[in-house]
Design goal:
single chain, alpha+beta, three-stranded antiparallel β-sheet, 28% helix
Length: 189
């Protein structure tokens, strides 16, 4: 093993001294070939694949870092608001089967969710969405053989960090147009 190391050192010296000549190039190629063979055979200090020793004990915990900056203000209050219960006539009544209800959030709060309550099982909702930043609207048609009511529900959030986001929502005009279209369609039946 010692002799191989000395031979490798001597070959490196020859390559360094004669590196720019053709004799040096030949020696360099021969030395590289010999070293590759010796390495793959495991003759240069150990096996071809080194074994990892056992894991040492865990070191001590480091010191805590500096305190982070204050985060943004979030939701301070959630409120559920009910819209007015709007009457609907029974199926076959025509335009009076259509009702619209809107739930409006208190000042300083914004719609973050919504829903509705229909008093009959066959009350088909054709519109249910945010009308604007603080109003949730619902439009439905009653196809049940008895009268019904429809009311919108809004979930509203308030807090210093709450602002209306630029998300898609309807408009009061869109809500009114939906009601008019449905009433006209039912009046023609």
């Amino acid at each position: 093993m010692q002799r191989l190391a000395i031979a490798a050192a001597f070959a490196a010296l020859v390559i360094a001294v004669l590196g720019s000549t053709s004799l040096g190039q030949a020696a360099s190629n021969a030395a590289k070939s010999g070293l590759n063979k010796a390495s793959s055979a495991g003759r240069l200090g150990g096996t071809a694949h080194a074994q990892r020793g056992p894991r040492g004990p865990r070191g001590p915990r480091g010191r805590p870092g500096p305190r982070g900056a204050q985060g943004p203000a979030g939701i301070a209050r959630l409120v559920a608001v009910d819209g007015t219960a709007e009457a609907q006539c029974a199926d076959g009544g025509g335009a009076c089967q259509v009702a619209a209800s809107a739930a409006v959030c208190p000042a300083g709060s914004y719609v973050v969710g919504g829903g509705f309550n229909a008093s009959t099982p066959d009350n088909v909702v054709s519109y249910a969405r945010r009308v604007n930043a603080n109003t949730y609207g619902v439009v439905a048609v009653n196809f049940w053989p008895t009268t019904a009511t429809l009311s919108a529900h809004a979930v509203c959030a308030a807090g210093a960090g709450i602002t209306p986001q630029s998300v898609q929502h309807g408009t009061p005009t869109e809500l009114a147009e939906k009601v008019a279209d449905l009433r006209a369609a039912l009046a023609d039946r």
